[in-house]
Design goal:
The chain is of the alpha/beta class and 338 residues long. Helices cover 26% and strands 22% of the residues. It has an eight-stranded mixed beta sheet with strand order 4-1-5-6-7-8-11-12, sandwiched between helices. Strands 13-14-15-16 form a four-stranded parallel beta sheet, sandwiched between helices. A two-stranded antiparallel ribbon has the order 2-3. The longest helix is centred in the middle third of the chain and has 14 residues.
Length: 338
Amino acid sequence: MKNRICVIFTGGTIGSCVCGERVDLRNEDKSILIEMYRERYKGSIQFDELRPLNILSENVQPYDLEIMADCVRGVNTDDYDGIIITHGTDTLCFTANLFSQIFCDIKIPLVFVSALYPLDDERSRGVENFACAVTFIRSVDYGGIFVSFQNHGENCKIHLASRLVAATQISGEYNSILNVHFGEIFNGAFIYNKDTLNPTINQLRAERKPCSAQKLCMDLVTIQAHSLLNFDYYRFTEVKPKAIMVQLYHSGTVCTEGKEANFKNFLSYCKNLGIEVVIATVDSRARVYGSAVGLAEMCTTAYDISFEMATTKVLLALGSGKSIDEELAKNNFFERLR
């Protein structure tokens, strides 16, 4: 145990303050977060601070993510027990999923920490989320990418970053796919969740191959299935994406009847334009509904991973010149459930 953690600050709500009726970024040379942690939890841990970015996460651009990734690459992991990245909640899910891929082989735990409210708001759990990340890092002897987040009325959960799904609407709470978190912090200790869907400790300790796809591409359109969705409005006469992702209903279905709402008609349109269409997510063990018969053979299908992870893999495949199908099939950091 080196008793040393590298903290990378990137802004977000956890790095913001309340300014009247507005929340905005705090410009600081010293960390309020670490000061508040010291006041509440004491301890002798050395925190080394890096500040490559100071942005609201909803404004993140590809080059911002590259700056953040380069900052991680520049950390000598031999010097630290772990790395903590503070991040805004709005795009936490995407960055966590992304880093679970590009840093899948990291030798120490890297934990994302965020907050729904600024630290000067009494409702904020930012310090608690940070403290739980510290506890987790000091409790484990394996690397990987994780998220420390406490929902209202719950213990702080530790999530595999590769399984984190989008926050709930309005409340902003975070969960893992199928609500199977990796572990939780209880009475100041990390408790591993022995659910069979989770990787074992020995699997986490094993060496992992690096991810070959490292670059992002924004030439992607995402569409979410909903009632009366009119696919005829998606026409690419001026700008054509390289790929389209369609988030299916929970049962792996989408409308395949009628005219404007018929997804199969849209598939034919995209095929004529040479646009690859990806559907997500599909449970490989589930029965296929009559409306979905044949869909998997008509387009690229993301099996047994979250839609958020499927999006990440497609963007990395497009940006790195890799096969989308092959990237979706990989299991870089336990993202696959089957």
